[in-house]
Design brief:
Blueprint lengths: L4 E8 L2 H17 L10 E7 L2 E8 L2 H17 L7 E6 L14
Antiparallel strand pairs: 1-3, 1-4, 2-3
Length: 104
């Protein structure tokens, strides 16, 4: 059974510049993938006063680790260094729909 996780990464710098650079790196990474890759379950990139914040959700930590390993060269090529902060959180519940009641 997989353990879904959420990863929050912060990159410091000019938000507009970082957003453009990250999008370039993301598209470059996608172009190098074959049909068998596991994209994140959810993805959001947010502008903050001091940079950008990337929030992703993964079905398994292994999927995130594979993405991280493959994405780093694309980030470096786009002029983005390692994140200034990161957080990994286990996903207890994903989605908005109510959880069905358990049978007695």
């Amino acid at each position: 059974m997989s353990n879904p996780i959420s990863v929050i990464l912060r990159f410091n710098g000019d938000p507009d510049d970082l957003l453009g650079r990250f999008e370039h790196a993301r598209k470059s990474w996608i172009e190098t993938q074959d049909e068998g890759y596991n994209p994140p379950t959810f993805f959001a990139i947010c502008k903050a006063e001091d940079g950008i914040v990337l929030v992703t959700g993964w079905e398994a930590d292994e999927d995130h680790k594979a993405f991280r390993k493959q994405m780093m060269p694309h980030l470096h090529a786009a002029g983005i260094s390692r994140p200034s902060a990161h957080e990994h959180l286990g996903i207890a519940r994903l989605g908005w729909n109510p959880v069905p009641a358990e049978a007695p």
